Amino acid sequence: MAWMIDRRNVVFGLLGLPAAAMSGHAARPGPTLPAGFIMGGRGRVTTVLSGDRLNLDDGTQIRLAGVQAPTLGTGTARAEPLAADVSNALGRMLVGHYVDVHLPTDPTDRWGRTVAHLVRADDGLWVQGALLSRGLTRVRTFPGTATGARAMLELERTARAGRLGLWAHRHFRVRNPGETWGDLDSFQVVEGRVVDAAVVRGTGYLNFGRDWRRDFTLRLKPRVRTLFDRAGLDPRALAGQRVRSRGWVFPTNGPMIDLTHVEQLEVLEE
After folding, report:
1. Is 106 inside any structural domain?
2. What separation in angstroms does the CA of 228 have from each of 150, 240, 260?
3. Which of 28, 40, 73, 128 is the most buried (most CB within 10 A)?
4. What is the rounded distance in angstroms from the CA atom of residue 24 to the CA atom of residue 126?
5. Same structural domain for residues 154 and 230?
């Protein structure tokens, strides 16, 4: 789906842009791109396909690293709320502009798209930072695209506290563990208290209820548990702690998210 102005959603899109952008002047740069990326060149944005996908003038399709926008409907799948609004806002932000492409550790996804952070060349606007700070996307990282996650999570927290963009809509609310049966086969942010934590045959489990056959669980396979140990996060020490996790919810006994990297889990202060 190419970007186009949706008159019904134009107000939402304009609210997501600074006043300078609406007046035709260069936008004031927002958050700064974190360090740790590899410069991958420059291109002009020709088409926005969704709130996190776009095309450059050389034919490269970019998937924005580290963020998840509301999904547009495909086939029989219905679009998520505000999907067109976010796509339109990204189009107004980028179509016709040159962007610098900054690559994470793993710069290609399984569909062959280039996964990257983008910085608008004319004014230095970090695209992911702008989207997150306006509440237009949620943080979603993978093991090879987690660089800068701490900065992105902080931007998301601020937008969520201000109920900006997506965070004002019930569909995108942070879930509590008890309601995740209704969220199977979707990406979610889930927050709650770890009731029990254990390691069984090398795999870590963070259980959010007494019945592990029915209640929500976070799983850390042996390789991932090693990563957590290196980061000083022994899963067994998290019993009784409040945590916020994010990932794909799927059914294995109860609803479960597989943690694949440390940045998926935030230990919350009481």
Report:
1. yes
2. 16, 18, 10
3. 128
4. 19
5. no
The amino acid at 46: T
The per-residue pLDDT for range 166-204, each reduced to its tens digit, is 999 999 999 999 999 999 999 999 999 999 999 999 999
* Beta carbons within 10 angstroms of residue 239's beta carbon: 14
Residues in the chain: 270
Q: What pLDDT digit, counting tens, does each position of 227-242 carry?
A: 999 999 999 999 999 9
Give yes or no for a contact between 204 and 235, defined as CB atoms under 8 angstroms apart.
yes
Q: Token pair of 182, please?
A: 């209704």
Co-location of 139 and 26 in the same domain: yes
Which has more confidence, 259 or 18? Answer: 259
Residue 75 belongs to a domain with what CATH number?
A: 2.40.50.90
Radius of gyration of the chain measured on its C-alpha atoms: 19
Question: Which amino acid does the sequence have at 175?
Answer: R
Query: Does residue 125 surpass a pLDDT of 70?
Result: yes
Q: Give the pLDDT of residue 30.
A: 85
CA distance 138 to 172: 9
How far is it, in rounded angstroms, from Cα 63 to Cα 111? 10
Does the pTM surpass 0.85? The reply is yes
- The angle subtended at Cα 64 by Cα 58 and Cα 68, nearest 5°, is 145
Rounded to whole angstroms, the Cα distance separating 247 from 259 reads: 7
